[in-house]
Each structure stands twice: as structure tokens, then as C-alpha cells.
Amino acid sequence: MTVLLELFLTFSRISLIAIGGANAAIPEIRHAVVDIHQWMNSDTFTHLFAVAQSAPGPNVLIASIIGWHVAGIAGLLVATIAMVLPASVLAFAIGRVISHFTHRREYKLVQDAVVPVAIGLIIASGIELSLYSAFDVLTWGMVLGTLVFVYFTEANPMWALLVCAIGGVVAYQAGVL
Prior knowledge:
With 177 residues, the chain is mainly α. Helices cover 76% and strands 0% of the residues.
């Protein structure tokens, strides 16, 4: 099987389970690209994820960057299409069907039940990334500081990214990282 076909099949499958968006599927993406296909190691995956998160645009960028890392521009295109197309078609089809049931009580129950699932998947993604990253006191301080900043202020989260990036550079220059 060619790498491009493997990329397409991998990200197509993952797109269908990404309830809550691409970030909710990070553990499965990491498992597929690191453990199953061995296209990269955990450190590279974590760095690519960080780049994808710091870039403006949709969370699906993680698939694009992985595709590019694995197979260049063709990989970028294949992985992006594979991550977007199946989920979009499924969402459209489900939307057409359930639009007839939005007035029913069961619709609201299902809708409410999906929220904690999405939250759980996103939290699991954060835990998954932390397990395969070199975390120390400084890194945990940045994580907690960002969490507090984003949760308790209405400021743009990019400020947290900027402060942590500068802090990381300073720590690296000082030999702490």
C-alpha cells in the first residue's frame, strides 16, 4: 500500500471518530502515526502538534502538517482531504436526517449527551500529549498559567502563547530547558 493511500485511509477513519474536532482525536492520531505506521516518534508528533496549534486556522491543521511531514505536498493535500471529507459528508447526511426530529425530546437528550463526550475526548488528548512530552516544573507552570489565563480572563489566548514562547526561549538560553 502506498504512503498516500495509508494517509488517506488513516485520516478518513480518524475523521469519523473526531467528535469535538480534530483535537479530540489526538490520542488516536498519535497512536496511528507513531505506533502503527511509525511515520515519526512521539517527540516529533508533539512538536508538529504544537506547530499546528500555534498556527491560525482550523484544528485539522494537525492532519495537514503530519501529511506534509510524511509525504510532502501530496501528503498534506491527501491528509487534509481525508480528515475533512468523510466527516463533512457524514455530518451533512446526519443533519438531513435529524432535521426532522429537532422538535423531539430525544433529540435534546442526545445533543446534551454528546457534550461531555467531546469534553472527555479533549481532556484525554491533553493527558495523552503530556505522557509523551518532556514535562518539568517550568512546563507544568506554563500549562497551568495558560489554563488560568484562558479560563479567568477574556483576553486573547495568543497572549498566553506569546508569553510562553518568550519564556521558553529565555529558559532555553539560560540552560533551564
